[in-house]
């Protein structure tokens, strides 16, 4: 799992006037809104006696620990210690890590890492259809949800980028009689990569068979990934101009579970009465993928790029592997083995404030694998 990237922590609509507990990268966080409705995210462990802040409450724009009611503001600074009285000075170390937050497409995105705020990577720009919808356009209809994989995030994201499996794994997407994948050209784009592929159509099931009829050309699919999330966009031009887009941001809950936050858009069957059918279709696709990736061995993508045999249809997932290696070379990979070997130690992912001022924190930072050269990281 990697630090110094953006992850989806919660649905915006689910963060109201109570603190929300979230687990990402094996660490616990509390997400809450201040008096102005702005969302914030703090490390969940109270630095007094380890209370879980998400079990407290939001009071005057701060999070109040449930145990002795110390209060932490949006920047993570302790602003009240009731048992010392209102006049008491607050110790400098009385603070928890606070992470940058942005809301986009109805999701609360949190930057987990210690890069200076000026160096944060961008959120995604590859969903203009949803931006248009938020501005009032009605030609696309969107449904959303989540799906939990019992699989490592690298395996799950690679599955989203896998060009060869739809023919065999998805009964509604791929035609198993025409499984050949033509050589694909991949272009680097926006903290990730982009490609297109074309495939023979397959008979649609249920409602969609009414509109996505078989008198249609080969189906062009556009595929793109972005480091933030990490996220995948898949657009299938089913029967032009009818098209479907699935965006998924894959949050590693821990090193063996991955939560997909997904939005599906379609520019046909756009009335609300079809939403349940649309949702069911997406969840069927995720379930079909889960049946495979939840059982892959080993659980994690092997550390060496040459351990598994790569062929040309795997080019997109290979591009993703190479991007991960770049992050690892910078020293941004969590050393999950070293962390698991510790006995009951609470740590925190370092925030930008900690990055600029590493002293005077109560919790130690999580353990990271050391930075190394890119070629060494790839071996
Ligand atoms: S544990 Fe949080 S105030 Fe004591
Ligand atoms: Fe799939």
Explained architecture:
With 379 residues, the protein is an alpha+beta fold. The chain folds into two domains: 1-120 and 334-379, Rieske Iron-sulfur Protein (3-layer Sandwich), CATH 2.102.10; 128-322, Naphthalene 1,2-dioxygenase Alpha Subunit, Chain A, domain 1. The chain contains eight helices and 20 strands. The protein has helices spanning 128-134, 153-160, 166-169, 275-293, 315-329, 336-341, 352-356, 374-378, and strands spanning 5-11, 20-24, 27-33, 39-43, 57-59, 62-64, 71-72, 78-80, 98-99, 101-104, 107-112, 141-149, 187-188, 192-199, 219-226, 231-239, 242-254, 257-266, 347-348, 364-365. The strands form five sheets. Strands 12-18-17-16-15-14-13 form a seven-stranded antiparallel sheet. Helix 2 packs antiparallel against helix 5. The longest helix has 19 residues, at 275-293. The chain is globular. The model has no long low-confidence stretch (mean pLDDT 94). FE2/S2 (inorganic) cluster (FES) is lined by residues 46, 48-51, 65, 67-68, 70.
For the termini, the CA-CA separation is 18 Å
Number of strands: 20
Helix content: 10-25%
CATH top-level class of the largest domain? Alpha Beta
- CATH domain topology of the largest domain: Naphthalene 1,2-dioxygenase Alpha Subunit, Chain A, domain 1
How many structural domains are formed by the residues? Answer: 2
CATH architecture of the largest domain: Alpha-Beta Complex
Give the C-alpha Rg.
22 Å
The major beta sheet can be summarized as:
7 strands, antiparallel
Strand residue percentage: 25-35%
Spell out which ligands are present. FE2/S2 (inorganic) cluster, fe (ii) ion
Q: Structural class, from helix and strand content?
A: alpha+beta
- Number of H/I helices: 8
SSE ordering: EEEEEEEEEEEHEHHEEEEEEHHHEHEH
Q: So, the CATH homologous superfamily of the largest domain? A: Naphthalene 1,2-dioxygenase Alpha Subunit, Chain A, domain 1
Tell me the strand order in the biggest sheet: 12-18-17-16-15-14-13
Shape: globular
Q: In terms of per-residue confidence, which ranges show pLDDT below 50 for 5 or more consecutive residues?
A: none
């Amino acid at each position: 799992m990697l630090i110094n990237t953006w992850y989806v922590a919660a649905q915006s609509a689910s963060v109201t006037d109570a603190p929300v507990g979230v687990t990402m990268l094996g660490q616990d966080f509390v997400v809450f809104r201040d008096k102005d409705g702005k969302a914030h995210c703090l490390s969940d462990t109270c630095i007094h006696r380890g209370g879980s802040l998400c079990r407290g409450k939001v009071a005057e724009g701060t999070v109040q620990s449930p145990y002795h009611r110390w209060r932490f503001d949006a920047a993570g600074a302790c602003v009240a210690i009731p048992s010392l009285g209102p006049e008491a000075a607050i110790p400098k170390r009385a603070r928890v890590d606070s992470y940058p937050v942005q809301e986009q497409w109805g999701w609360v995105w949190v930057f987990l890492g210690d890069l200076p705020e000026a160096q944060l990577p961008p959120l995604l720009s590859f969903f203009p259809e949803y931006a248009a919808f938020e501005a009032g356009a009605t030609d696309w209809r969107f449904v959303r949800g989540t799906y939990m994989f019992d699989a490592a995030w690298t395996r799950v994201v690679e599955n989203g980028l896998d060009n060869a499996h739809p023919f065999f794994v998805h009964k509604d997407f791929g035609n198993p009689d025409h499984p050949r994948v033509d050589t694909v050209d991949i272009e680097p784009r926006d903290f990730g990569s982009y490609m297109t592929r074309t495939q023979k159509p397959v008979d649609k099931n249920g409602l969609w068979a009414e509109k996505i009829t078989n008198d249609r050309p080969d189906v062009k699919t556009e595929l793109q990934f972005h480091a933030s999330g990490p996220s995948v966009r898949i657009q299938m031009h089913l029967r032009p101009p009818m098209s479907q887009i699935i965006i998924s941001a894959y949050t590693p809950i821990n090193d063996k579970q991955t939560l997909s936050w997904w939005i599906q858009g379609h520019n046909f069957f756009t009335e609300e009465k079809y939403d349940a059918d649309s949702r069911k279709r997406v969840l069927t696709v995720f379930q079909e993928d889960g049946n495979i990736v939840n059982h892959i061995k080993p659980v994690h993508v092997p550390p060496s790029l040459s351990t598994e045999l790569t062929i040309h249809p795997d080019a997109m997932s290979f591009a993703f592997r190479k991007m991960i290696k770049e992050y690892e070379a910078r020293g941004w990979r969590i050393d999950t083995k070293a962390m698991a070997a510790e006995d009951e130690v609470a740590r925190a992912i370092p925030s930008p404030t900690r990055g600029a001022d590493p002293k005077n924190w109560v919790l130690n930072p999580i353990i990271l694998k050391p930075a190394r050269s890119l070629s060494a990281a790839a071996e």
